[in-house]
Structures are given as structure tokens and as C-alpha cells.
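QUALITY CONTROL LOG
STEP: pairwise intake check
CHECKER ROLE: data steward
CRITERIA: each record must contain a sequence immediately followed by its C-alpha cells, with no blank fields

ENTRY 1 OF 2
RESULT FIELD BELOW
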Amino acid sequence: MAFTPLKTDPRTVPVIQVDSHLPAVAHQRLQADALRSRFAAPPAWQAEFSIEKKFMDREPMPAAVLLPIVLRQEPTVLLTLRTQHLSTHSGQIAFPGGKVDKADAGPVAAALREAQEEIGLEAQFVEVLGQLPIYVTGSAFHITPVVALISPGFALHPNPYEVAEIFEVPLAYLMNPAHHRHHQVDWQGVQRQWLSMPYQDQLTERFIWGATAGMLRNFYRFLRA
């Protein structure tokens, strides 16, 4: 799920800072047992990105996304590319997720349901670790990121209406601020800023930005605290 709309290609928006001065998360902290321990006894920390500048006036909409860490030899984060024809956040890189339905028991249940509906990820491969703070988008979505470990062996079946591609990015790459870029632009009379974390996937650039990048940055802060 990614919600930051823009009428121009976000790749063309100027970069005002790259966070090469910040330390990467140590390799050992990215392993399964270390991640389990971190969520079992979380440190005192504060999210860096929590509320986007508002651009839509409507009632808050609860939502949940799954931040899926695949337990490869080197852990990866599973992401999706949304299809171009969707009415909102089309063509953006996102976590599996969506609105919390009334029938959902809560954000965890919603994230698991959405992951199954969007990409065919079965719950038997998912070990939920915990949640990150709510991220509020400018379109009034109140997103709860649900962090989970994904055991290999799953078979994915993307919903062709919503998902154009499914791919993985090394967790170590995303948890290294040398790859975190700050953008700034004046849009609709408001100065807006966001992060991007472009990743070169063979011949394809995966331009991770907006809410997805913001939640990943919060995860970085959680692991570095």
C-alpha cells in the first residue's frame, strides 16, 4: 500500500539529502532470532515518519499492511508493484495490504487477509512479530504496519487486477540509510517531502517511495534504537 499522489514522476523530484552519514543496521540484527527478540522486548524509540501533510478532507480510514521479511539466506522484503489502472496509488510499489474491514478482528487479521487476497500468501507461512506505529497518509488512511517473518516454500498467486509484479529487495539494502534519499517539491501550494529508496533489480529500477519508504524508515529506526 502506498498513498502519496503526485502529478509528476516522483523520480524527477529533486533530492535534497542522502543519509549516508547514518549507520546501517548491523547484519546480525536482521536475522530471524534477533528480530524475534527485538519485538519480544522492544526498546524505547520514536517513529520518524508518522503523519503526511493532508491533501484529502475525509474521515480517517483504518488500514493495515504486511511488512513481510522472507527468510532467505540473506533476508529480503517482499513488495508489490500495483497495476496502472487502479483509481488510487496506481503503479506504485507497496506492501500487501488495504482497508481494515468490519469483519476483521484487527490490523493483524486485516493484513493477513489482504496478503492472501492480493498475492496468495497463505497464513501458514507467516509468523507475525508485531506492529509498528500507525502511519497517517495525506489521504487519511491510518495504516498499521504488521511485521512478519515469511518461511520459504510459499507459492504466490497475485491478483491480476491489483498486482502487476511481486519482487523481493534485500532487507540489508533497505536498512542502510546510504540508500535513503529525501525529496522536496511544492505541490498544490504546499511544500511536500518524502523518502525514496531506489533499488536496481537487474535491469529494472524499483523506485520505492512515499508511505512505503516512510514505514521502512520507521522500521530502520526501530531496529537501530
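ENTRY 2 OF 2
RESULT FIELD BELOW
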Amino acid sequence: MTNKTRKTTTKSAKTARAQAFVPRKGEHYETRSGQVLEVTNGRLKDEGDQGASFAGRTIEFHAATGKATPAMATDRFYLDELVRKLSKPDYEEWIAIQRREAEALAEAQATTAPAEPTKPSTPAKPKPKTRSPKSTGKLSQLDAAVQVLAEAGQPMTAKTMIEAMATQGLWTSPGGKTPHATLYAAILREIQNKGADARFQKVDRGQFTTSK
């Protein structure tokens, strides 16, 4: 490829990116690195071989408050970094996912904290043996999640897994209002406790796949 052709191709690529994304002040975008940013000045600046850039600031989620706020300082971002523009519902869903992850991680850490030593107690009297009830054959929530992930062959969110379990008759919520949040926490807990032996892998924000 000649230098002239290479320059033409590069220019065409830049033009395509400029046409795909036209950042405007106040809009939110997701970058290739997974960051979410807010445009503070959409006026494009030609950065030569690096392409066009604009001014913006990253959105920081604070687990302690459950809120997302823009960083204090602004920075330069390149059009080539952008993956997609976030609509208002998309941005609100991103915040909701961050909040669920923070809550699930906090719950997972709380349940895996070492228990305080207890005082030795007097041995209890043995209870008379009783027959154990027969197994219903139904899967647990986590086992059902593994099965729907394996059958789907692609990453799924906790909410989608819950819906698939119900559709396939593998597992239904006994009455909880947020079974997807419970499943989310349980999956993170297994990943944290079992590490490489866990049956799940987190592949993206709010999405999991099976490692088995």
C-alpha cells in the first residue's frame, strides 16, 4: 500500500468515526476500556494520526453512597475510543448495574467473613432418627443457573437467567421480590470463595457465563 493510499484510508476511517459519533455536551458514552464518560465540550480537535478528540470527564460510581458522579477534572477523549452512545435509560441501567454489583459484593464479603469463636456448649441429647423426606428432584437456584448458561452458550444477566429457569421449569422463586439480586450475590459469592473452581465467570458488567 502506497503512502498516498494509506493516508486516504486513515482519513476515511477518521471520517467514518466522526460520522458515527458526534459528541454533544451532556451526552454519555461508553469507551472501549469499559469506562462511561460525560461530554463537557463536543467541539472536535484534530490530533493528527490519533484522530479527533473532545473534552469530557469519566463517571465515577461510589459504592458507599450508591450514586454516580462525574470526575472533577476534565480530560481529552478520542472518537476512536467510543463504543456506543448511552441513552438516558441506558445510563440509568448502567448505574443500576453498578449498584447491584456493589450490594452483591458487600453481601458476599459479609457472608464470607470469619465467624467469631463460640464458647463450647454441652453436648445435646441425640434425637430419635427420622426418615428424611424424598428429594423433589428440583434444582437449586445456582444449579439451574449453570444449566441455562450451558444451554445458552453465551453470557447472560442474572435477570435473564431467572426468566430462563422459570420458562424451562428448572427453578422458580419461592416468593422473593428480587430473585435476580439473590442469584447475582450467590454467583459472586461462589466466584469469590472457589476462585478457579467456581462454575461461573464474570465476563462483563452484570453478565456471567459458565466455566464448566
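INTAKE CHECK: passed for both entries
DESCRIPTIVE NOTE, ENTRY 2: Residues 141-210 form one domain.
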